Amino acid sequence: MTSINVDGHEIEVTNTDKILFRDAGITKGELIQYYQGIAGTILPHLAGRPISMERFPDGIDDEGFYQKEAPKYFPEWIHRAEIDLVEGASQDQVVCDSAGTQVFLADQGCITPHTWLSREGSLDCPDKLIIDLDPPGNEFEPVREAAFLVKDLLKEIGLSPHVMTTGSRGLHVIVPIKPVLSFDRVREIAMEMAGILEKRYPDKLTAEIRKEKRKGRLFLDVLRNAYGRPRLPLTPYAPDQGRRLQHPSNGTSSRTKRLYQKVIPLLIYSAGSARKRIHGKIFFPIASRLRMQQTNSNEFRDLHVFPVEP
Fold first, then answer.
1. Which residues lie closer than 8 Å to 188 by C-beta, 6 or more apart?
2. Are 118 and 179 in contact (CB under 8 A)?
3. Whole-angstrom Cα distance, residue 224 to residue 133?
4. Quick one: 275 and 144 in the same domain?
5. Quick check: pTM over 0.85?
6. What torsion, rounded to 10 degrees, do the Cα atoms 291, 116, 151, 133 define?
7. Tens digits of per-residue pLDDT, 277-299?
8. What are phi and psi of 248, to 5 degrees?
9. Whole-angstrom Cα distance, residue 224 to residue 126?
10. Do residues 249 and 169 share a domain?
């Protein structure tokens, strides 16, 4: 057992030599060092957001579990948010707003903290809208093409989309919005967006939830725009991918100057290269911020964009 001081808190970390990622040889100590090292960059994007903890105390080869409620034994200095549940019940969930919290959670075997799309003070109203690009197979080109098509629509209605890899096959297109609409309303608007895209590109894109009806088309998943449904944050370890991390994509594109200068590659990083990379700008825009334009879908005006930088 080792005691380390983080943010003025003495945190006892144990079994730092335990292998959590067998194939990659990553230890719990390295996981702790990684999350402590990226704290200054990632914390502004976690602040105020309740998390669901994906825990693998004995490594990813053993069965892990999700945990929403903060255990009673967590120290008092760990920030908690009170979450309303059905029938008047509530529970406390961790809000990861300090390097000390990240270190403590990593020591608890929390490999991935999944964050809400809303923050304290407006938990019922998301500040992000997400379109998850879910490909029918393992080819990445349909995902890249779909991201451009989604960008074109969002550009038409004056929104400022950003793109992130997911640690798996797809991409997340993320739109920052002001937290003024309910999750239900934001999801309705996202569904309308998906419906328009399906009508424009019926051979490539679909909003069909049932897999058997997608017929080889890329699925525009907007269902994660829901109260209490978390998503992967920036630069986490992904337990099913070993060293694969989730990142914004910012390569240079040579496809055409008419579109934009940001390519959307599927990037895979080691923890070391990720630390070097993320100390730059976190979000990379797909399109420039635009003024609102006339559109046939005037309801999109409900989504008021706000600056990305926290």
1. none
2. yes
3. 12
4. yes
5. no
6. -170
7. 444 333 333 332 222 222 344 44
8. -70, 150
9. 11
10. yes
Phi and psi torsions of 260, nearest 5°: -160, 170
- Kindly state whether residue 257 falls inside one of the protein's structural domains: yes
Residues 90 and 147 in one domain: no
Residue 227 belongs to domain spanning: 128-302
Q: Which amino acid is residue 81, in one-letter code? A: A
Sign of CA dihedral 11, 109, 167, 232: negative
pLDDT in tens, 181-208: 999 999 999 999 999 999 999 999 999 9
Cβ-based neighbours of 283, under 8 Å, separated by 6 or more: 162, 174, 248, 308, 309
Q: Give the residue among 171, 82, 190 at the shortest CA–CA distance from 128.
A: 190
Bridging pattern class, strands 205-206 and 218-221: parallel
pLDDT tens, residue by residue, 149-172: 999 999 888 888 888 877 678 899
Beta bridge partners of 115: 51, 231
* Three-class secondary structure of residue 41 per DSSP: helix
* SS3 of 43-110: HHHHCCCEEEEEECCCCCCCCCEEECECCCCCCCCCCEEEEECHHHCEEEEEECCCHHHHHHHHHCCE
Write down the pLDDT at residue 159: 84
Residue 206 phi/psi, 5° resolution? -150, 150
10 Å CB burial of residue 291 (0-12, 13-18, 19+) is exposed
Nearest to 45 by CA among 96, 83, 92: 96
